[in-house]
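Hello Y.,

Per our agreement to keep a running log of every chain we model this quarter, I'm adding this entry. I've kept the format consistent with earlier entries: sequence first, then predicted structure.
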Amino acid sequence: MKFANGVNDLVTKFIRLDVNEELDVDMLVVERLYPMDFRAYEQEIRLLWLNVFEDELKALHSAGFVHRDLRRPSDMPGLRYDNIFLTETSLRLIDVGISALKSQVGDKLFNRFVEREWEEYEVFRKDFLAR
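Predicted structure for the entry above:
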């Protein structure tokens, strides 16, 4: 997450690691995002957001970071693409739990992850524009 934050603003900002003593759990504290419903916006505006999102995603990949979880597995609760938020400024990514760095997984696996991510993105793009 910190690596991605050094590249651009696509991934939610890391703030700190902490402990919730009352619940006895470790916590990853990130910036608070306020998601908006994209269906209220014209398709032309959505295209602009998608263009910026694509550029930022390409920059993350070029820097050696892949999110790996644009689309949730079908057996998980929640919306299919609820790791992509529309905020008042742009589309943003949350939940970097299974993200990968090229320097840690190597070229072959990283390139495979990137390819899958673009496949997931194309499905998201169609859905984002069609609703």
